[in-house]
Amino acid sequence: MPETSVAHFYDELADDYHLIYSDWDASIRRQGDALDALIGQDRAAVLDCSCGIGTQAIGLALRGHRVTGTDISPRAAARAAREAARRSLSLRTAAADMRRLPFADGQFDTVVCADNSLPHLLAEQDVNAALAEMRRVLRPGGRLLISTRPYDDLLRDRPASTSPQVHGVAEADGGERTVTFQLWHWHEDGEHYDLQHFQLLPEGGEWRVQARRTTYWALGQDRLAGLAAQAGFVDPQWRMPQETGFFQPLLVARAGE
């Protein structure tokens, strides 16, 4: 799927993205705390190269890090900057493709690519290009943090859908609820899948349905760790949610000297 389709998917989702969380502010803090513990230094220069609307970037800024956020979606990156400003935080953002990062060599202490963003790249050459760019902008010894879905498990089962998630305040308490779910269609190669993302949003006593489509590559953990090693990262290790407190498995590695 062309990169413009990924940008379009997240441009359309940008205004409603926070509704996939039961409490977005709590998720911001929780994810920022988990990533901060893995960074292991104060006031690190961090690039979040798939910042979306700012969930991880804002969480890390709250922990005192000097964060820059980029995303292929201009609307998502712009919202991240607005959300940071609302919280009196400094967050520089820009629209950029992670395969062509607009930064000098060795500029960052840590690069974050979270929330299953890397698997939007559908061919090995594109993943290689993105990892090479992440390595280039990291100082020697800098930290790489990539999170994906638990693809080793998903490749065994190849699910067709996710369970509906209902968030918001119950009507009995004076609020409104939203419903989010996904349908997955696996390609014949057994590794790529098309995703339909549905949101049911209350509007004027009725439901407004938003349906958006995108495609992912279900990259197994050994394969992604191997590609990271080829790109010049050392000691790639997968850390699981029960260990880190982060909601997805995390590939943690260091930029080689």
Automatic annotation (TrEMBL):
**Which molecular-function annotations from GO does this UniProt entry contain?**
methyltransferase activity
* A Pfam family: Methyltransf_25
Instruction: Name the keywords, alphabetized.
Output: Methyltransferase, Plasmid, Transferase
Residues in coiled coil: none
Domain (Methyltransferase) ranges = 46-142
Listed under GO biological process in this entry are: methylation
Q: What class of enzyme is it?
A: transferase
Q: What is its EC number?
A: 2.1.1.156
Gene3D superfamilies (UniProt xref): Vaccinia Virus protein VP39
Kindly provide the name given to this protein in its UniProt entry.
Glycine/sarcosine N-methyltransferase
